[in-house]
Write a structure and sequence with these properties.
The chain is built from no helices and eleven strands. The chain is mainly β. β9 and β10 form a beta hairpin.
């Protein structure tokens, strides 16, 4: 089985920063993709930033220039450095990992971490 665990959420004032971490562990050969998504109340879950195994990154327009995704391959961990936070960034942030096991790809989600930005 595979576990995906997020951490680092919390309450921050507008203009502040937070760093989220997402660690994948368990039985798999490699990690193909890790991404951060968020879901605000009564809204659909949306992509924030992602990174493939080859290092290709993708950002939502609403975070470009403010958030940075990075990874530590040795720890199977991806980070989301969030800066210049806005109240509209308030949401539950989820991590998705796509891992490779026995030649097949499997998708796993973390439980989410709350980020609240006060004005």
């Amino acid at each position: 089985q595979v576990q995906v665990v997020e951490s680092g959420g919390g309450l921050v004032q507008a203009g502040g920063s937070l760093r989220l971490s997402c660690a994948a562990s368990g039985s798999f050969y490699s990690i193909d993709y890790m991404g951060w998504y968020r879901q605000a109340p009564e809204k659909q879950r949306e992509l924030v930033a992602s990174m493939t195994s080859g290092g290709t990154t993708r950002y939502a327009d609403f975070v470009k220039g403010r958030f940075t995704i990075s990874r530590d391959n040795a720890k199977n961990t991806v980070y989301l450095q969030m800066g210049r936070l806005k109240p509209e960034d308030t949401a539950v942030y989820y991590c998705k990992a796509i891992v490779v096991r026995s030649g097949l790809k499997y998708q796993y989600w973390g439980q989410g971490t709350q980020v609240t930005v006060s004005s």
